[in-house]
Each structure stands twice: as C-alpha cells, then as structure tokens.
Amino acid sequence: TLSPIISPNDAALVIRGLRTLELRLQQSNQSAQLLAKRLAAHPKVKEVLHPLLPSFPQYDLASQQMSGAGGLFSVHFKASSAAAMEDFTHTLLASKRFSMAVSWGGHESLALPTVAFYGIPGRPDSPIPWTMVRFYIGLEDPEWLWEGLEEAMERLDG
Fold first, then answer.
1. pLDDT band for position 1 (50/70/90)?
2. Considering the entire predicted model, what is its pTM?
3. What single string gives the DSSP state of each residue in 80-92?
4. pLDDT value at 97 more than 90
5. In this structure, are residues 68 and 36 in contact, taking their beta carbons and an 8 Å threshold?
6. Cα 9 to the chain's mean position, in Å?
7. Gyration radius (Cα) of the chain, Å
8. At 65, phi and psi to the nearest 5?
9. Are 133 and 102 in contact (CB under 8 A)?
C-alpha cells in the first residue's frame, strides 16, 4: 500500500543508522581525500575531480563553503584504449576492494567506470570520456584500497 508514513521497522533502521552517521561520513571523507591526493600525484592519472583538491576549478569556493566533501570523486586515467580501461576495471574488481555499483553512501567502496557504458548495441555512447571512473570510498582501510588501485593502474598503458 502507499502511505506517507514509514513502517516501524524502517523507522527503527533509520534511527539506528543515524547513531553512527557522523563517524561514517568522517571516515569516508578522510579516506576519499587521502586517495584523491595520491591519485592526483600518480603518473597514470590525467585528472582527479575532487572539490577539495587545489586543482579543482571551484576549489576556492568549495574550501570556503565545505569542511569535507564526502566519499565521492572522479578520476580521468591515462589509457590509450577502451580495452586498457576494461583491463583496469576487471583488475580493480577482481581485487575485491571495490564493487561496481551506483548506490553511493553505503559502507563499501564502489567504482563506476564509464567505459562500461560504451559499445552497447542500440544505445548511444556516453558523453563522459571512457577514461573516467567515479569512485565512492566507504569504510575500508584506505591503504588496502590503495593497494587495489595500484595493482589496477599497472594495467594502464597511458
């Protein structure tokens, strides 16, 4: 049935999640900033889009208005072919450190490679470059996540 009121069980789950929300957001934000900075300095990365990196076009505005940026950021990798990006993606997912999904905000780290939206019969290619990956950083140890990223970046030929 349709109702403007959530069920008691759903309300209890919301209340339970709110108790740790601040800690989860802090961890996700700190880990994302650490990984974004490392990726920005990596030779196989063309650009990192994270509002609290000085290279971001609206960094001054973001740093005035935000104390953190959450766990989301995008990376343009240096790759000479879509096949290289597919190898990167397969290696990253095989590391079991990232899952491929779009449900940002959970406890697990996610990657959404735009190369996955290219070459689909009957569908136009994405306007976003196939070298881009959108990351959400969850609650895992950022050093463990970095190991998976490094391993996957070895597959890039750019």
1. low
2. 0.87
3. SSHHHHHHHHHHH
4. yes
5. no
6. 30
7. 18
8. -100, -15
9. no
